[in-house]
Amino acid sequence: MSTSSSSASINALLKKTEHYDKDERYMATSDLCEVLKRHSSGDSLSVLSDSSTERRICTAVLRLLHDKSNDVQAIAVKTLGVLLTTVKEEQVLEIADSLTDQVLDASKSELRDVYAIGLRTLVKTIPPSMGDLTSKRLVGRLLDGIRTSQNEEIVLACLDILTDLLGRFGASAVSVTRQHEPILQMCLQQLVGPSLVVRKRAGNTIGCLSVVLSDALLGSMVERLLSQIDSAAGNPDDTRALIRTMCTVSGAVGHRLQQPQIDRILPIFLKFTNPHNAMTGDDEDDMSPSVDYDMQDEAAVAVANELKESCFMGFASFVTRCPTQVEPHLEKIIEASLAYMSYDPNYSYGDDDEDAGEDESGEYDDESGDDEYEDEDSEDDDDDDESWKVRRSAIRTLKAVVEAKRHSPAALWTVTYKTRQGQAASVAMALVTRFKEREENCRSDVLDCFTKLLSVTVDAAKAGFVTLASDDMDTGSVTSIDLRTKYAPSLVKGCEKLLGVKKGGGERSKSNALVLLSTLCKAPGGIGGEHAIISVFQHIRSFLADSDSHTLHRETSSKTLRLDALSLVFAMLSCGNHDPVHIRKGLTQILLPPLCEAVKEQWYKVIAQALRALAAAPQFFVDGFNSNEQSEEEKLEEMNEVANKIFLAIKPLLAVHDVDQEIKECALEACACLLGSLHSNLSVEQKNALLGLVLERLKNETTRISAIKTLSSICDTNPASTQGKIDLSSMLRESIETMAGFLKLQSRSLKQSSLEALDTMIKNHGAGDDKALYSRVLEDLAHLIADSDLHISHLSLRVSHSVLKICPGCGPAVKGFVLPQALALSTSPLLQDLALESLLALLQQVVVSEAVDFEELMGMLRGRLDEASPSKHAIYNLGRCIAIITASTTEVHRQKLIAETLTLLEGSKTPSDRVALKKVQLAILVSGDLGRAMDLSSIPGVADALPAIYMGYFDSGSEDLKHSAAYSLGRATVQAQSTFLPAVVEALEKNGEKKQYLLLSALREFIQCSDGQKGGAGVNASLQVILPHLEKHSSDDEEGIRTMVAECFGSLACMQPSPILKLLAQIAHNHSAITTKDGTVDGVDTASQKNALVVGDLMKESIMPSLYKVAELKMERKVDLGPFTHKVDDALPLRKAALSIFATCLEKLPGTLDMNAFMPVLAKALSDVEDIQLQAHQIVISMCVRQPTHITSSVESFVDPLEKTMHKKPGQKTGTELERLNEWIKSAIRTMTAMGRVQGTMNSRKFAEFYERTKANSKFRAIFDALDEEK
């Protein structure tokens, strides 16, 4: 469209905006909005290049804001938001002035809301570049409007606009930052004004203002608010407004407040939430005289309740945002929350609450629970009762406490807190007793809070922070949380009472009760024994059943409740914490028919969850029979009936094509479980029908990965089970051929799944006579064996191993297709872990199956020596390959190779020729790895010769031979401890530093290999031989020796954490030398990296307190180097190791760290030397994801050291030094960027200004661009 035609269109639309018909005006304005949108996005030619056209559009839109039609006004406001992004700055200012005039005009009361919305739209949509000038026009006039106007509506409109202005430009616009003090003064005045609504709006404005205030002004504001609260103690209205404002401020910037300020604020809140005043309708009539306000005055009660609600909102905010600073007050906060969680002065629950819902036989009576909640709806007198808001706020405070204690929740279960009227209870037990709450919102929050507590406790138990009592533990020797007997019965009873209510109970409460029971399933003991399981299943049936006899909820329950009920079923069946016998009885008697019917639902999520539950059910009909409970015929009949029901439920969904993908996948999962557990209880026709459908799904592109996993699961069934091995002959060959064909495709996930399934299928169901089929499989997978993808190589080698084991006749195919790729992989410098182990297993099977002659294979491997990479790993891997085939061959071949090796190594000579030297090195490595597999000391002449040969090479001029000899000595000692180990420790005390280092290296290799091969059992028997020597050399002057000792201690600590860590602490205590401390810390570092969970229990109490001090330790000295001096910090290695331990614990054991002590250490590390700073940067970046709350609370302490690093001057640095400096600066900027993404950090004005200042600095532009590319 040309410019002229666009202008004509605009003119026509502007004319229509003046039409007498409101519909015409509405459509014209809407079309104008669309035109402006296209212009702002650049999709059309500019139609606003003419300033007169701009002005006419602005005038028209402003005029439409006065329109009599509400619809036209609404579309005009929308159009205004688009217009402000397209017009020039002078037009924006004119619009701002015009709208401000209208807002402040006392005669325009009818349309003031429209003008205010327009002005707020302007503030939210104008480009940032116009923010300063626009703010300059608005701030002064808004303040004048608040100050001079007697019209409450004008004041409220001005406060709302001012709040939006502070939120958008409060920190960036100079014209606003200069007005922070006047704005604050004005808002504080309004807080004590006559209008309650104005007070509330002013408090919101102060909350928004606090985010952008400087630290000094924020501190001043808090002090003034506290002073006003003290002076307004006799005026409830003023006190309520001031406390609500303080709550708003704490929610926005609580992390910026200092400890003294928090220590003043919280006692004020606690004064208004005195547990003694938390009344209930069950209290006796003689109430305490300390309740000083007239309880008959409804207005006074409402004011008091709102004040309490605000206080608890403040508690929740402080506990969430700054848990460390709140810790001294946490006990009183919990006590107040527990008391007011029950605050219900207008309702009596009666004395028999605990027995409600049970009849004389102990069976639950649905009607009694129903009546209780029906009373809630029938009471009209409680319509104005707002006490539930106080209870809700108290419960949410407890939820914040639970979140703050997520790594150490034990106190919430075991510590008893005072609540009200002399009562006391733990947090957990108090929550359980509040399941009877009558108000739906509060009841849902109680359930949600307890679910959160239960969830974090189970997670903490898995991490080792707390102990949950179970049947197989001695509860008398350790403090534990007894969920099984103390809580589970009460929880199940309370949840059942909620689930049994027909009406008035609340869908949210029922849903939360189901989620709570699902969470309880994760704890030891689950929901309980047979009675509890049967009872819960009965309630679940009421949500699912469609027969006339079980329609308690079916007609009224929503699909969400049915989904939650099915999720609970799945949790109960899959958690592994219930007796299989009890589950089987419940399924047979109650739940299996409704589950089978649930797959006929309409909502795909319900169908999928029902299928997951059915998938978990079959195993219980294998494991869930008592030996004497039923006859074999009865068991068989029951299993046949169950298998048939599940078959009829899943077969239609497995066959249909036009269903959701999730249903297809869940149907395949259910099919796998049915065939894996109950295949012998299905007829041949039923089995073949399911297997045929699986094969059909295997050939479908959208379901083939799920079908592959299904086949893998079916084939992985234990053949020793009562069901025996399933017959797959009808589809085995075709499925193998299909999956082998997938190996030629590009999809990595498809290749990975296919290889895993092929390995399982061939290993468990392969036939040894199908040589042609397996040869094609080997041909198809051979190209996948390469170091470009080691995991795929590992899987391919594993399949090759399984094929050769099942069908030795495939030896030529292995030799022709697989072996060349495997040999090439054997000398790859990247080969490691699973791929290496699979390669060794294949080579071993090649020898055992005689697929290749031993001498020929040995020649092939030795021939790889010349083609091996120069990398150390290549020749070491080649040595392991030769050792494994030697250990697997005949005794004759083995003796021959050992004799050749001893002859080659005799005299420990070092060849001058490079090729000969590599042959010697390979022989050394082969002997060591062979010694790990078999006891070489039992061979005549080896016991004395081999250690002497190894130690002889310690004097070699080749470093490669030295380290290979140490490596092999350690490995050969694994199977020959009684002979080789005494020789090693004896030589350790007789030789100098260089040989001591190599001997300690051999000792380290022995410890690590013993741990991996024998689980550490071999080392445990030799600890008394090893430890004295390690302790002696832990204080050696040579750093390399100390480091090697530390690695030995670290490996030993993973096997025997308690004695080794205590020994390390004793060594550090007995030796003041920095060198000893260095070795000790390195030992702890090694142990934490190898197996953090094992040493976790001892870290927090025994190690961390000392580690915080070590992390700040500096031992600087000056070294005179003649013309100049050099400063040396002997404690630098200690600080490095300490930070490394911190990083490991933050990742694996966050509960071992005291964040209150750690965060200052981290801030100081950011201003340390370069290496320490780089470590600290990585820790901060990691914490931005894992512990964002602590980053937010400490962000200001990180600003100065980061900024100092960013502005390091290069001086005379060039080349590598300059590049290193740039990386250092880049790391600091990366850290700042990561912190900027954490929610709440930009609320700190100091950090926000630092962030914007850095982003605006042109010298960092290239670094920011590079970081963007990294994403």
Topology:
Blueprint (H helix, E strand, L loop, with lengths): L2 H14 L5 H20 L9 H14 L5 H14 L5 H16 L7 H14 L5 H18 L3 H18 L4 H4 L2 H12 L4 H17 L2 H17 L4 H18 L5 H14 L25 H24 L1 H4 L3 H11 L25 H13 L8 H18 L5 H5 L2 E2 L5 E2 L1 H7 L6 H24 L19 H17 L7 H14 L9 H15 L14 H16 L5 H19 L5 H13 L3 H4 L8 H24 L5 H18 L5 H15 L5 H12 L16 H11 L5 H18 L5 H11 L8 H17 L4 H16 L6 H16 L5 H10 L8 H17 L2 H15 L8 H20 L8 H11 L6 H14 L4 H14 L2 H22 L2 H4 L2 H11 L5 H17 L1 H14 L3 H17 L1 H19 L5 E5 L4 E5 L2 H17 L6 H11 L4 H17 L1 H19 L8 H22 L8 H12 L4 H10 L1
Q: How would you explain this protein's 3D organization?
A:
Residues 350-386 have a biased composition (Acidic residues). Pfam families: TIP120 (PF08623), TPR_CAND1 (PF25782). The protein has 1271 residues and is mainly alpha-helical. The chain is 70% helix and 1% strand. It has 60 helices and four strands. The longest helix has 24 residues, at 298-321. Mean pLDDT is 82; it is low at 43-47, 285-296, 352-372, 374-381, 474-478 and 546-556.
